[in-house]
Structures are given as C-alpha cells and as structure tokens.
Amino acid sequence: MKVKYPHVIVVEGKMDKDLLESFxxxxxxxxxxxxxxxxxxxxxxxxxxxxxxxxxxxxxAPGKRIRDILNxxxxxxxxxxxxxEKAIKKHKVxxxxxxxxxIMDALNHLMLPETDSKSSNLTMNDLFELGLMGxxxxxxxxxxxxxxxxxxxxxxxxxLKRLKALxxxxxDLEEALGRE
Length: 180
Fold this sequence. Notes:
By secondary structure, the protein is of the alpha/beta class.
C-alpha cells in the first residue's frame, strides 16, 4: 500500500519519479535534468500559490544547481536533503539510488532555504568554537550535524544560515555533536 504524501515533490528525472511512485501516492514534477525550463519554473511557481512544494534533488552538483535555480526563482519552496553516502549505487549518485527509508526520512525533515530565525542567536564564532569551522576535523564534525539535522553537505556560512533557520542554539549543537 502506498503512503499518501500531501505535498508536491520536484525531482530531477523519470527514474526518481518512478521510484517515488512505487511507494508514495503523491504529485511529482520532474525537471528533466539540470536545465530547468522556464515552463517548469512557471508551473512550480503557480502550484506554490496553493500547494506546498518540496524540492528533492540528487546530492551532487547538478542537483544543487537545480535546487538553487528553483529556490531563487520561486519563494517558499521546502527542501529535502538525502545524504550522499545513502544515495550511491553502482557508482551512481541520486535519489533513484536511495531506498524508501532514506527518502521518507528526508521528506519528514523539510526546511525552507536561507530563512533566518529570530529565535536563534548562533554566530559564526559559535561554529569556530565548536570546531565546525577552521579545524582539521571541521568537515567531519559538520558531517555529523548534516546527517543528524538533515541540512545537506554545506560550507560553514551556509551551515550557519540553515541552523538559524531551524531555530537552533549553541546548546542544541553541542547535544547534536554528542557533548553535554
């Protein structure tokens, strides 16, 4: 039995759509690759007036490009992120290479892009002090947060924006990193 998903999901291609349709009852739009057409952008924009739109693209450079184009052209889109290591099969990376549990986990952890929460007082200095930036193992520490908080693989500046968008404070980060 398929799971009813209330939001419209935007994916890159037919293989992604076919996989999602195998276990989800949802409206799914494909961009047909990294060249997102003006028609697709306008369709997503029109749908966003009455429906919640979720962007679920591959965790690679073309997927990021599609996500960035859509988010810059249409406001209020939600984003779902699949960790790259959970989206690899036979040397291919993508949504279609993920499993149902990974996709559902991503769809259950949506975030708006680049929104700044008034309830978060995190600063770049906090990221440095927690070793998330500027240290030899900063990338591995960011990876822990990326996986636990579903914020995608990002640099320090974007990580700060996404953590603030989630309304997290320093204590939340310390807990996520396994500190007390």
